[in-house]
Amino acid sequence: MVTTHDEQNSNLLQLYIESNIDKEFFILSNKKNAFLIIDLQGKVAYANKLCKDKLGYSSTDLLSMRIGDLFAATELDKSQTFFKDKVPETLSTFNTQIYPGKDESLWVKLTFFPIYYSGEYLGTFIILRTPQSN
After folding, report:
1. Which of 1, 68, 100, 119 could tie 55 with a disulfide, CB 3.0–4.6 Å?
2. Rounded to whole angstroms, how far apart are CA atoms 133 and 99?
3. Which helix (H) or strand (E) holds 7?
4. With contact defined as beta carbons under 8 Å apart, do 29 and 112 qualify?
5. What's the CA gap between 19 and 5, in Å, rounded?
6. How far apart are the C-alpha atoms of 74 and 68, rounded to whole Å?
7. Any bridge partners for residue 114, and if so which?
8. What is d(CA 81, CA 134) in angstroms, rounded to the nearest whole number?
9. Which of 2-6, 77-81, 96-100, 110-114 has the lowest mean pLDDT?
10. Close Cβ partners of 15 (under 8 Å, ≥ 6 residues apart)
């Protein structure tokens, strides 16, 4: 059976998620943070309970979504798989809007950083927090 590099990365990302899910990714985010993980194609691979609660989507709905379903197209790059003018393989924080419903938007302080597993860049960990008011 021949597998492509994308399939191998997808399998490694799932292995990464499965090996960290019991710990609720505590090294990367405390239990008070809503977060999600996207793969290299911009598809949601995992979302914690707080993320589901904050956005009002079911697990099934979130796992069938892409980053373009949650953020405005103007925030995303040409491929609609990552954030415009941002480098996926770095740590970055910025304020943006996320869309928990068709006609709703919610301001969040978004922090993202890359996920590496077995030496491969596999996806992005995205933390959603309430923005600080000035």
Report:
1. 100
2. 20
3. helix 5-20
4. no
5. 21
6. 10
7. 124
8. 31
9. 2-6
10. 117
Scanning the structure block, which residue is given the tokens 């989507």? 57
- Which letter does DSSP use for residue 74 in this model? G
Helix (DSSP H) and strand (DSSP E) numbers for the chain: 4, 5
Report pLDDT for 25.
56
CA gap 30, 83 in Å, rounded: 23
Give the tens place of pLDDT for each residue, 37-58.
999 999 999 998 888 988 989 8
Of 89, 91, 96, the C-alpha closest to 111 is 91
Amino acid at 51: C
Provide the CA 130 distance to its chain's centre, in angstroms: 16
Nearest of 2, 8, 9 to residue 124 by alpha carbon: 9
Q: What pairs with residue 43 in β-bridges? A: 66
What is the reported pLDDT for 2?
A: 45
